[in-house]
Amino acid sequence: MKIRIAPLDWGLGHATRCIPLVRALQAQGHEIRLTAAGPGMLLFQREFPGLPIDAWQGYGVRYPKNPRWLFPFLVLQLPRIFSRVVREHLELRKLVRLGEVDAVISDCRFGLFHPRVPCFMLTHQLFLRLPASLGPLRRPLEKGVYFFHAAFLRRFQEVWIPDVSGENSLSGELAHGKHGLPHVRYIGPLSRFHSPSAGDTVSPSARIQVVAVLSGTEPQRSLFEKELLSLFKTLDGTRVLIRGKPSAAPASCDSASAASENPSDELPRLEQGELHIFDHLPTRALEDLLLRAEIHIARSGYSTVMDFHRLRLKGILFVPTPNQTEQEYLAAFLCGHGVANSLAQSQVRYSRNAVDAARFNSGFSKFQPFDPSTLRDFLAGHPLLHTE
């Protein structure tokens, strides 16, 4: 089958969690064509250099510098977002008419539905959360948003949730509850990383004190980076900062290691006790650094949560994007389970003690281990994805 996979351009997480889908479908003999925009497109080019990739205009969601204005700022962008939803829907209709698409997997791109081909929506949010600052209006508005959201989801043949349906859920109330959607299927967490082998150990000489992984949209990504650099000046040991910018050109810095793309799969060489900054790292190199680190600092985006769960990481400090309700909920939800500690972005530069405290959280050791066969079996047995 000719399957088109299209992630949202809101940060890199939507693209990274599509990587295992691409690999699994390729292994089953499907012809994959990717659709992406911005950094997600560059990520796909590095991960799948032999696959065709179409550049479609993204939704272009922007954040204000002052997080207080995030919600009204997003509301003002809705007309432009809807216009792009309409455009991508018309583009898909054209491709179907030309016989270039047999199925579509859309990661939160709401215009990619069509009555003549199977279209699947990949999302971890059935219930969108609104800011607490709305006060008593919050709950009734959330109900209204849900019905509007559900109306779009019903246009797809199925809604795929990258999580488990019962206990040990990673998404909590975001994807669980009475939703009234009969076509929701829980397909298990998605991660581009490989599960660590039992008994794997890291030699003391190869250990890294802290790895910070940046993600998300501007300007909050850059503000987070600034806070982390201030924090790292107060820490000892080997520190690594991955800026989450696959499109960035190499830049110089005052630390022992200049920022670089490291485009090959070669593992980066680190000088012990120094600060190392990378714009982007390929999957294998990033996985190696995360497994060697004692402390992991990152946004609490759901794709990051799934990656950390896949690697069974401990010593996690989540810093949700200010006023991004989904990330704030996930950070609080996982802190409540003892998985991670959480910290406000404004406190990062003063948080040396919080970094030390993160060493004692249990991480994902109490959660059900990732089973790589779940996705493979789900796709292989899906009645709408059988090759003739």
- Category from helices, strands and their pairing: alpha/beta
In percent terms, what proportion of residues is strand?
5-15%
Helix content: 25-40%
For this structure, the quaternary state is: single chain
The secondary-structure element order is: EHHEHEHHEEHEEEHEEHEHEHEHH
Number of strands: 13
Gap between N and C termini, in Å? 8 Å
Report Rg: 20 Å
Q: How many helical elements?
A: 12
Shape: globular
Major sheet attributes: 7 strands, parallel
Task: Compute the average pLDDT.
Answer: 89
List low-pLDDT spans. Answer: 248-258
Molecular structure report:
- The longest helix is centred in the first third of the chain and has 20 residues, at 78-97.
- The protein is globular.
- With 388 residues, the chain is an alpha/beta fold.
- The protein has 12 helices and 13 strands.
- The strands form 2 sheets. It has a 7-stranded parallel beta sheet, with helices on one face. It has a 6-stranded parallel beta sheet with strand order 10-9-8-11-12-13, sandwiched between helices.
- It has helices spanning 13-16, 19-27, 38-47, 70-76, 78-97, 138-153, 220-232, 283-292, 302-311, 325-336, 352-357, 373-380; strands at 2-7, 31-36, 53-55, 103-107, 119-122, 158-161, 184-186, 208-213, 239-242, 275-278, 293-298, 316-318, 341-342.
- The N and C termini lie close together (8 Å).
- The model is unreliable at 248-258 (pLDDT under 50).
